[in-house]
Amino acid sequence: MTEFRDKRLLPKIQMVLTFCMFGLKPGDKYLQIQTEGERGTMERFLLIFAASALSVVSSRPARQYHVILDPKNWTEAQRYCREKFTDLASVDNTDDVDILMNMGLPTTLEPWIGLYYDGGTWQWSMTDKDFFKPDGANYRNWNPGEPSSGWNNAQCVYMKVTGLWDDSSCEWPRKPMCSDVRGSNVTFVHIDTSMTWPAAQKYCREHYTDLASVRSSAENQKIMDLKPAEEDVWLGLSKTSWTWSNGSTTTFHYWNDGEPNDQIAVCVMMLFKNLGKWVDSKCGQLRPFICYEEFLPVFKQILRLKLVGNPSLDPNDPDVSAALQQQLLQKLKDQNVNGNVNLNWMELADGKIFHQIEEENQT
């Protein structure tokens, strides 16, 4: 087996811990601690304890690519990647393309990636099943002969000037029709800015509820009455016919000009001679292929803490230190620190975690 490897760089983990010491009363001050070199700050209290150190271990998934030069058909390549690594590679964005293109591989390389055509189904952007009851999700108002090109890039739906629907490339700029849902009531909102379907979906979700779902001929007519008479508008219906082997939901596409262009060729390879762009190819052909492997790199940081609390509580008591540890862990989760996080107190030479600091003289 011949393979090439590369790792994507990982950003540093930044964590903000904000917590109240076990035993603080309402209105008491609290301690805020931030890593990355910014020292924890605190107000002056009657009693201060200094912890020797708290060890914080965190991890997040990273990806390593493996380019296998021994040729296989797409199905065999998928099986091999799943047995040896994680799966055939997904290419989720231009950063992934750059990583693969900068691995020093031959420009003649045409390897399989994990993308394939599975036919797909038409689905509304809005996924609330209660919104579509009893059968609103199945309403369609296709123009005669449509949809006509679901096997290639035409996977998003727009309303024509006639009120009938057509499928189109999702990258074509059109003005979207958003929906604002309040309970059982829906209001349609026309946006007077042209954008791609993915951008329209993002805009509608950020400012309203979603791209417009059409459950009946009455709602179709409402949109017709609202939109300018000579304009097409995006609706919330789309089809994801091209699927990643690992289940990635990315909408990123990087097709070579004129691709995909063959309804029989339903698997995808990369053209390294043309910036890593994608071409459809018959799945039975023997080609090199790209696997990927996910792993969890471990990051360890040691934080030195100062705590304030009830003088009657001994922080070196196992129950008290365990309660503090649980509060810290919960605050990490509240601050959206994802992945596996382990907290451990580090003992000093005398076996203690905390040592009392004498009160500073007040002026």
TrEMBL record:
Signal peptide: none annotated. Keywords: Disulfide bond. PROSITE patterns: C_TYPE_LECTIN_1 (PS00615), C_TYPE_LECTIN_2 (PS50041). Residues 60-179, 195-292 form the C-type lectin domain. Gene3D superfamilies: Mannose-Binding Protein A, subunit A. PANTHER family: C-TYPE LECTIN DOMAIN FAMILY 20 MEMBER A-RELATED (PTHR45784), C-TYPE LECTIN DOMAIN FAMILY 4 MEMBER K-LIKE-RELATED (PTHR45784:SF3). This is C-type lectin domain-containing protein.
